[in-house]
Design goal:
alpha+beta, 5-stranded antiparallel β-sheet, two-stranded antiparallel ribbon, 7 strands, about 35% helix, elongated, signal, DUF3576, DUF3576 domain-containing protein
């Protein structure tokens, strides 16, 4: 149990660090441009090829899964296998692709993979088609919330 908590804590810290770097907050998130806001102050907007709201929302929504590979410039998030302690003979993995700089439904693609443990090891199993769609909808909803919060604060 302590190992699971340690891994979950590490995944959360990694997610936070990646979120900050993807937004350009640490100065390593790619080139930035200045855009003026309605109140006369300036804001920094990342120009790394993907929508920052979708990126942050994807990391927040998939935070229950351990991260395997993350590419903030290409807009790809690949999680590692995760087995719920309540169902140890079943594990899931997700891959999210952010395909555009615009906050649109077709700018996001989520694929979910499932395996079931049998006597011969882990075998691929079908995933309910609604699972990926529900994850996409949750990510899009969170991205809209992040966008609205940014616009309201500008």
């Amino acid at each position: 149990m302590a190992t699971f908590r340690r891994i979950a804590s590490l995944a959360l810290c990694t997610t936070a660090l990646i979120s900050l770097s993807a937004c350009g907050t640490l100065g390593i998130g790619g080139k930035s441009k200045q855009a003026s806001s309605t109140k006369g102050a300036t804001t920094i907007a990342p120009t790394n090829g993907v929508n920052s709201f979708l990126w942050r929302a994807t990391l927040e929504t998939l935070n229950f899964l351990p991260l395997d590979q993350v590419d903030p410039y290409g807009g790809v998030i690949i999680t590692d296998w995760f087995a719920d302690p309540a169902a140890p003979d079943e594990r899931l993995r997700a891959t999210a692709y952010i395909l555009d700089q615009n906050l649109r439904a077709d700018a996001l693609k989520v694929s979910v993979f499932k395996q079931i443990r049998t006597t011969s090891g882990w075998n691929d199993a079908p995933v309910d088609a609604d699972t990926a769609r529900k994850l996409e909808n949750a990510i899009l909803t969170r991205a809209r919330q992040l966008y609205i919060a940014t616009v309201d604060n500008a």
